[in-house]
Amino acid sequence: MTVLRVYERYLGRLIYGVFVFILFAVLALFIFFDMLSELESVSGKYTTLVAFIHVMLEAPTRIYEVLPIAVLISAIYVLSQLASQSEFTILRVAGLNTRQALFSLFKLAVPLVLVTFVFGEFIGPRAEEFAQKVKLEAIGATVSSGFRSGVWVKDRDKEPEGEVTRFVNVAGLRPDQSITGVTIYEFDPSYRLSVIRVAKEGRYQGSQSWQLSDVSETRFIELPRAAGNGADALVPHFRAQKVSFPTQTMRSELTPQILAVLLVSPERMSTLDLFRYIRHLRDNKQDTQRYEIAFWKKVVYPLTLFVMVALALPFAYLHARAGAVGIKVFGGIMLGLSFHLANTLFSHVGLLHTWPPIVSALVPGTLYLLIALGALRWVDRH
């Protein structure tokens, strides 16, 4: 393990101290605006207190989202202060070159990268899911997709007569992860519709098993074809048989974790949950690009903190006469916001133009890293 030098400890103490202050200041601002937005939904059991709890449970996700911007602002502020007081100039005279300064900032960013990873993988997704459940329980609603018909999921299962393909429509997902308004269209190995199953609700029993209640089944049974009928369209080849069951067990690869995408957007899911859902979509030959982009963004996002400190370093080479510290900090805020917007923009552009997901995730960070390295080269020469 590399031992931090004296100036690195001093620099780290300053940056971490300012970082905590800026993070809480930015977080408080987001919480204030989120609370104003939630007040519009306050009614009945969804009281102001419940709305506040909902907003506070979303705070870990907000921390994850603003961490790179907070790191950039804090690093720019500290380095600008050191430049205005000629402390950074003294370090340069003592032998600190640009490469060493950049490497030192990278070392100081490592703990913050780990913090970002923990919030993005463990704290944020779980808190976000719980926040949605708290709100749904208060207003007594279920979650469904943006479509009026609910969410559609493709599923497969192996039965003695062969592989069965299902198209499952779920009208809603309750906070306890039970599903309501279930309609299942089941196709045989020849892709002929064999069963239409409608259930009032379903509960997951574990081991890829669902218990459906109040089930109504319509089965399509093929009739033996009489000789000489040929291809007469008026002669029925199937007959429908309708049966009902109070409960029925259905084996399926679908799990509440897969359906939890209704509660949490892909950008706010953990990498593991995204990986599982992508695998499910691939197994059912469905489009995975949106979720793959979200997956690679989650992988790359903590590493953007290295880009942020690289962007901040050129400000240390600008002396006080080149502008006040406040102006530099304002420039850092604009730079951080532009990075955030570019990160979102390239996700949509990559999805629209079907770029490789990893390219959509890497382009913003790579672009801003090149800008930082170009700025460092310029200030180093001048």
UniProtKB/TrEMBL annotation:
<dbReference type="InterPro" id="IPR030923">
    <property type="entry name" value="LptG"/>
</dbReference>
<feature type="transmembrane region" description="Helical">
    <location>
        <begin position="325"/>
        <end position="346"/>
    </location>
</feature>
<keyword id="KW-1003">Cell membrane</keyword>
<feature type="transmembrane region" description="Helical">
    <location>
        <begin position="101"/>
        <end position="120"/>
    </location>
</feature>
<dbReference type="InterPro" id="IPR005495">
    <property type="entry name" value="LptG/LptF_permease"/>
</dbReference>
<feature type="transmembrane region" description="Helical">
    <location>
        <begin position="358"/>
        <end position="379"/>
    </location>
</feature>
<feature type="transmembrane region" description="Helical">
    <location>
        <begin position="63"/>
        <end position="80"/>
    </location>
</feature>
<keyword id="KW-0472">Membrane</keyword>
<keyword id="KW-0812">Transmembrane</keyword>
<protein>
    <submittedName>
        <fullName>LPS export ABC transporter permease LptG</fullName>
    </submittedName>
</protein>
<feature type="transmembrane region" description="Helical">
    <location>
        <begin position="299"/>
        <end position="318"/>
    </location>
</feature>
<dbReference type="Pfam" id="PF03739">
    <property type="entry name" value="LptF_LptG"/>
</dbReference>
<keyword id="KW-1133">Transmembrane helix</keyword>
<feature type="transmembrane region" description="Helical">
    <location>
        <begin position="14"/>
        <end position="33"/>
    </location>
</feature>
